[in-house]
Write a structure and sequence with these properties.
Strand content: 35-45%
Helix content: under 10%
Largest sheet: 6 strands, mixed
Strand order of the largest sheet: 3-9-12-13-8-4
Number of strands: 13
Structural class: mainly beta
């Protein structure tokens, strides 16, 4: 959820990796100045999700819980910290196990791995119409610049931060496909 440039509250839902088939805008690599390539912090990885649900308002506690875990995520493997990284959430309004389980699985899907982040600046207002939540892809990417050892393909990125100026635009984007 974010407040757009025109002052409206907007929600952009993340989809599963394979569900992205089109971008809102294609950003030409020749139009930008690459400022950095990084990954989401390992501290944001969660490989065990616990959803507490079926709230009993009389006892002021949740009566049930649902979990989703992944023993192959970056937090539990040798490349991670080799530990379980937990996230516990209370979903008081959920009453059935199917919904709670699906919610836990969705959080696990989004949080179980680190994702590439690309920061760049466009020295013109060409992309200043973009907003947080817009999906972009890159064209004419320099083949010598790899994203953690992988050549840039037809990957999709979501705009997570944007800074607009009269003569330029700075963006942070995270890979979603």
């Amino acid at each position: 959820m974010f407040i757009s440039g025109d002052g409206k509250v907007k929600i952009r839902t993340l989809r599963q990796t394979d569900d992205y088939s089109a971008a809102d805008v294609t950003v030409d690599f020749n139009d930008i100045v690459l400022e950095g390539i990084s990954q989401t912090p390992i501290g944001e990885v969660r490989n065990s999700i616990l959803i507490n649900y079926d709230h009993d308002y009389g006892a002021s506690s949740n009566k049930s819980s649902a979990t989703a875990t992944d023993s192959t995520s970056q937090g539990t493997t040798v490349n991670g910290f080799n530990q379980t990284l937990k996230l516990e959430l209370d979903a008081n309004e959920i009453l059935d196990s199917t919904t709670a389980t699906k919610l836990a699985e969705a959080y696990l899907y989004l949080m179980k791995a680190r994702r590439p982040i690309i920061n760049f600046k466009c020295a013109s207002p060409k992309y200043s119409h973009l907003e947080i939540g817009d999906i972009i892809k890159f064209s004419n990417w320099d083949s010598n610049i790899k994203i953690y050892g992988t050549a840039m393909g037809t990957d999709y990125y979501i705009v997570t931060k944007i800074e607009k100026h009269p003569d330029s635009t700075k963006m942070e984007t995270i890979k979603v496909s």
